[in-house]
Amino acid sequence: MERFFQPKQKSIPSSNCASSLATTSSRVLELLNSTKKSRAQFNVDDLISDLGKRPPIESYDPNIRDDVTMAYLQKGSCQPHGHDFPRRRIENDNRCFRNEWFSEFYWLKYSIENDVAYCLHCYLFKPDRGGGHIFTKTDFRDWKHKSTLKDHVGLIDSAHNQAFAKCTNLMNQNQSISHVISSQSSSQQKNYRTRLIAVLDCTRFLLMQGLSSRGHDESKESLNKGNLIELLNWYAIRRKKINEVLFSNAPGNDQMTSPSIHKDLVNCCAVETTGSMINEMGDSLFSILVDESRDNSIKEQVAVVLRFVDKSGQVKERLLGICHIADTCAQSLKDAIDAMFSTHGLSISSLRGQGYDGASNMSGEFNDLKALILRENPCAMYVHCFAHQLQLVVVSVAHRNVMLSDLFNMLAISVNLFQEMSLARPGDTRWGSHLKTVTRFISMFNATIDVLENISEDGISLQQKSMAIRQMDIMQDFQFKKDQDIQNAMRLLKLCKYALQNMRDNGWDTLLSKVIQFCVDRHISVPNMDDIVISKGRPRRASQQLYPMDFNSEELLLLRPQLDKFLMLVRMDEAFFNLKSISCVAQKLVETRSSCYSPLVYRLITLVLILPVVTASVERVFSAMNLIKNDL
User: Is this structure's pTM higher than 0.85?
Assistant: First the structure.
């Protein structure tokens, strides 16, 4: 008590009394500010799933410790199933953590960062005295002695079981004091449930359609209160049961339409959707598609999409999450991906591919995101987005044409001169940006000429005036080449495609005979095209080179016979006729249960399918983000 209040004295001068009161008030304010600061610093999203990185529970302020404990229990465990657990030497043996221990000891948590095991229940509720701290504050990594895990549980009144009982009681809301105080009748609970389901259904509909929820004016006098409230009104008019529990028929403090409640419901939908996707993927190998962009609030956001093959053999690309990052350096992107993997129990050792748009902070050779991931997992092969590669090829070919190059140079100068006129700047890696620039330039052509005339007369410097005159002359005197119109160009393109296809189908033998005759006339040895070519050097299988962690030496010996049987099956079974893609082959293998008889072939096909091709899925994520997170 002496820390917060001064002891009462019998006779104190008035000046001392004032100073004592001021000291007491300052200390009380300091205590309140520290409590508020502790509450302000607590954020559920900042909690780390890896127990090896978490601060001790005693370090949190007592006023928020229960909230932190509840958040940890709701966040769940860190059990990275499928992780490649490192081995360490213990008494002349190389031992490692076993994946099946998660099923046998449900309370067991593993820290990827420190390669140690913890107990979440004891971390939250175990007392400081008695029982030791081998699973809370100190490390457990004695993988040789599994009996230590059973000894930790102990008898029914052990410290571990007492901590587990406290966690169970805390998660049981029916036993909480707040629930007892605010206990409601069964009819009120039924109305609340009906109201919650109605709001949740509308929220799910808006999320599925990618529509914004809130309106700029949601007052009673507003004619359009936003998509969420308007949809609830439409729902209530058509369902009497819903109308009886919404808006004016609901308690004033339980309307379920406030922005904070709506954000909680959206977050719940996101958690359930992501959990369903993780369950669908299971322990399968996967690839990631990553891209970063700015939202309407000028904050950098990074989106991560998983590409995997489900149990039916179908390729899926699913959004794992969008995360805000302070900057776009490679290390920040890597930390964001590690945080997502840790939250959802994914391991980087199961990663087999990474696809980016070719930006330098992602696809460089040394300290970029690709290199950081390859250092941890050499099997995570990098694939440059093919759509961005095609865009770069088209831009490069266009710049080789003199007239097109002059056109875009003129447009670039116009963009630099008229930045305030909303002329879009073309980008080599942004799809459709050149077309957007040309379209806006055509629509603003007359206004651009007027501005150039004003600059040529009233420009600040002589250089600016001369540039405006030169740009105006180029724009007004630009002549397009009229040798071939667009119809002739399309006709020539179709003719070229037909000639190439005809040469491929009917002209190969003629071309080969001419080449052979050319070699014979000049005494050049002609190889036999039907001979088997043996490559020089030590032969190495492609599967061994690309996927050393997925095929051991014994499986490599069995892979060739399974491939031969698979080829015979595909040529004989009518079910495999007229398949259009490798994905269809994988699905047909699962449908006919042939994947059970050729598991190595199916595994090889799966590894090929999960390799990323384009980053269009990530681009669509940002398009949806701009629709939902708009200027409102």
Answer: no
